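README: folding subset

This subset contains proteins for which both the sequence and a predicted structure token string are available. Records are stored as plain text. Below is the entry for Putative DNA ligase, ATP-dependent (190 residues), shown exactly as it appears on disk.
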Amino acid sequence: MAADQGKGRHRATCRRIRHHRGATAAHVGAGRSAPAKPKAKAVEAKPARKPAPKKAKAVFPDTFAPQLATLVDAPPAGDWLYEIKFDGYRMLTRIQNDEVRLFTRNGNDWTDQLPELTKALKGLKLQDSWFDGEVVVLDEQGLPDFQGLQNAFDEGHSKNIFYYLFDMPFLSGEDLREVPLEQRRDALKQ
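--- output ---
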């Protein structure tokens, strides 16, 4: 969360619970182990949540618009999640009929720019799924390096790109958008 004290009031940038990036992100790569995860603070245990709504069969969408950060005057009341902001490119994955397509948040098809990632995602053998994540390049300390990411595309070294998944709104034909984020994250770990 970033605060701006301009004009005598605090403004905060918050992401809604729907899409968050961070310590529980899954890593997809072509035969590589995941880099060290950034350290996260311990959080107090929360009371038990209501049972999750049942997964719903849905018409699988051709396109998917990710939820983006919204500028607000103050953080939301009650419980909310925060997470690490990776310095990379937002990337959506659509898997249908054994075909994997990678899209930027603006809907540009980047499948051809990320052949190794596309191959690794095909290896998951999933159907009718949408993933939401961030592609990054990591520096020697394991931190995201935005310039390194741009260079990887310019130099044709997309094999150096890591894909951190932080949400899966659709999985194997099931609409998971109403399933609590924490449960979708747990499923991503599997």
